[in-house]
Amino acid sequence: MTLVSAADVAATTSVRDAIDALEAALRGGLDPERDAPRSRLTTAAGELLIMPSTLGAFAGVKLLSSTPENPARGLPLIQGAYLLFEGEDQRPAAVVDGIALTNLRTPATSALAVRHLTPDTATGPARLTVFGTGPQARAHVAAMAAVREIAEVTLVGRSPRRVDALAVEVAAAGLPVRTAAPGDPDAVAHADIVCCCTSATTPLFDGALVKDDAVVVAMGSHFPDARETDDALVARAAVVVESRASTLREAGDIVMPVAAGVLTPDRLVTLADVVTSRAHLPVQGPRLFKGTGMPWQDLVVAAEIFCRITGR
């Protein structure tokens, strides 16, 4: 059995590799609607999350702990491992660092959505705004740069110290960067891409500010009573989701507008249908991708990592 560290993941599998693997899986017929639901167990310190999936010769499960008090201790909110099985005998093939896998597959899924949700009329470099200052915010900057040329990155966060630290990293990667305070309308009004990478439970901005040709990614929440975007955006936008079932079970950005009568489930378009051209989005209006993270994404990217490490 192969033990795959975070360093191994970084050395072998780029975010572009992960994006392409996810796209190939969807084009190859993978149906996210058939994926097993995420299981949760409440613990004294937070939650345990169990995420199994299967595809072809591979099967696997991610086991994660989510500990809300960890960031204040200087520790990751999410920790865990992925166990990959292979072949007809379902032998254990690899154990993959769970943080590294999550920090790769999540932005890769978002970037795959942006690759396909970007309007055909979009020309020139994109202005990117990222809400959040944690690992997902950092990874989403790199992932967006893998699918769009970036003119400027605007970082928005509650902690000026953390925003400034992330700005230094983004600048070191060669991207023009500026910072904005929460509530600054220009951060959203001028953006071509908005990525919400936070643990917020209430909307981060006024959806009326979003440009008609902008793409918004909301990936920070997988609880039905938490959201990063508001009804104003949902009412205007073409709404794309990973799967209808998981979204209506877990995604507060969608569950709450549906409960309020702002959105009907028949308006939801799946990412698989967009990627395979079975669905076409309206030409006018912003486009919202809501992701909660699904087990199939972990499996596809873990298998890609394993194949690259073993020279398959």
From TrEMBL:
SUPFAM superfamilies: NAD(P)-binding Rossmann-fold domains (SSF51735). GO terms for cellular component: cytoplasm. It holds the Pfam family OCD_Mu_crystall. It comes from the Bacteria. InterPro entries: NAD(P)-bd_dom_sf, ODC_Mu_crystall, ODC_N. Gene3D superfamilies: NAD(P)-binding Rossmann-like Domain, ornithine cyclodeaminase, domain 1. This is Ornithine cyclodeaminase family protein. It comes from Georgenia yuyongxinii.
